[in-house]
Design a protein that fits this description.
The structure holds two protein chains of two kinds.
Chain A: H1 24-37, H2 41-67, H3 70-86, H4 97-122, H5 144-163, H6 166-177, H7 182-189, H8 193-211
Chain B: H1 9-17, H2 23-27, H3 29-56, H4 59-74, H5 97-121, H6 134-137, H7 140-143, H8 150-162, H9 166-174
Helix pairs in contact in B: 1-3
Classes of the chains: A mainly alpha, B mainly alpha.
Chain lengths: 213, 185
């Protein structure tokens, strides 16, 4: 029986359209995949922290814009990273890693939202059972009034986003809040670019109606 | 310039997505202002959403969340890596085990039903439907309740039914189903 070698497997260079250089996340993901393939799992775990550094904040933002709950968003981001780590051998270097990750994250948010609405339908909330977050340092915001005003507007915007239909919200969040191209959004959500544009148009029109009335 | 020649909303939103190379837009200050307003609007939403995120996710929280993720990855035992179905041999339990359970459950159900029917058939014949109007017997779930004193109960019902119906109607109207049935006997 051949002995299993722990020598690093050759890293397949991520393929990108039109010869553009691969994203840093795609490069790191390819390295991790190669490490896992050669059985170097401890090294892969260590390298994974670089991937978390690159995508963590973005994952939290997308999940938060989508779920509007800090604890849910943090859990959704954690689930997405864990899933990516466990399924890394299935990552295909022919696509940008961010697209794959976003797809996993958005699907996780959708599942979480569905289960949350099912839970809310059958249960009565029993107070604040959120996990303990570390204490915050003293705030450096300009003034309480300015903070209150900006908080109120942020709340209005978050409320308007929550009123969008699910697909429009997904598209809008990825395009305008995450700053991705329509092609990226389409690939992550399984839509054509034309459909993405239609959803964007409808989302913008609806948001204007909600926020300018 | 007439109103009809201004860009409609669809075109304006499309221009927001692409470089504004529209000939009308280049020469129409009104449409330029509308496009600028739309850009400002999307910027406002972006900054509002950023503000909302920053209020909730401070640096301390973001760091804490990152530590949790890394701890969760660290807690994954080696050799537990999964594959998507189709990518190599799946490690999920074989689906062939499932039908055995289903067959066992189905067999148990059939045996139970058969035994139940057999034991019920030993009882004396209960002329349940005799004398009861067809529209009532069409609802077996209401009347097919088996209690210890079935005979006595049915006898009492039959005697009431064969006499004046006033008392029976009064009982009927007390039941929750009284609105669903025709109360004229």
């Amino acid at each position: 029986m051949p002995r299993r070698s722990h020598a690093p497997a050759p890293i397949a260079a991520p393929v990108t359209p039109e010869g553009t250089p691969p994203s840093p996340a795609s490069v790191v993901a390819s390295e991790i995949k190669a490490m896992l393939a050669s059985g170097a799992r401890d090294e892969a775990r260590e390298r994974f922290s670089a991937l978390v550094d690159l995508l963590h904040r973005r994952a939290l933002r997308i999940a938060y814009y989508y779920l509007r709950d800090a604890d849910d968003a943090a859990e959704a981001a954690q689930d997405a990273f864990l899933k990516v780590f466990l399924h890394m051998p299935a990552y295909s270097e022919t696509r940008p890693f961010e697209v794959w990750f976003t797809k996993i994250l958005v699907n996780g948010c959708l599942d979480r939202q569905k289960s949350r609405s099912r839970r809310l339908k059958w249960t009565i909330p029993a107070g604040d059972a959120s996990p303990v977050w570390p204490p915050e340092p003293a705030s450096t915001a300009p003034s309480p009034e300015a903070r209150l005003l900006s908080k109120a507007r942020a709340g209005e915007i978050a409320g308007a986003l929550a009123e969008l239909p699910a697909r429009q919200r997904q598209v809008f969040v990825l395009r305008y809040l995450d700053g991705q191209s329509p092609a990226f959004v389409g690939e992550a959500l399984g839509l054509t670019e034309a459909t993405v544009r239609v959803h964007l148009f409808r989302a913008l029109r609806r948001l204007r109606g909600l926020l300018e009335r | 310039m007439s109103i009809e020649r201004h860009l409609n909303d669809t075109r304006l939103y499309a221009l927001l997505e692409t470089a504004p190379a529209d000939p009308h837009l280049a020469s129409c200050p009104h449409c330029q202002a509308r496009l600028a307003e739309l850009r400002t609007f999307t910027e406002e939403i972006r900054s509002g959403a950023d503000g909302s995120f920053a209020q909730v996710f401070t640096e301390t929280r973001i760091d804490a969340s990152k530590r949790r993720i890394l701890a969760a990855i660290e807690a994954q035992p080696a050799g537990q890596l999964l594959r998507f179905p189709g990518a190599g041999t799946p490690r999920v339990p074989s689906l062939r085990a499932r039908p055995r359970w289903m067959v066992a459950a189905a067999a148990g159900l059939i045996v139970g039903l058969a035994l139940g029917r057999w034991t019920q058939s030993d009882r004396p014949v209960q002329p349940l439907a005799r004398g009861i109007p067809p529209h009532v017997t069409a609802q077996p779930a209401v009347y097919a309740v088996s209690v210890a004193g079935d005979d006595e109960l049915l006898t009492a019902l039959e005697s009431v039914h064969s006499g004046p119906v006033g008392m029976l109607r009064a009982i009927h109207e007390l039941t929750p189903l009284s609105e669903q049935h025709d109360t004229t006997w």
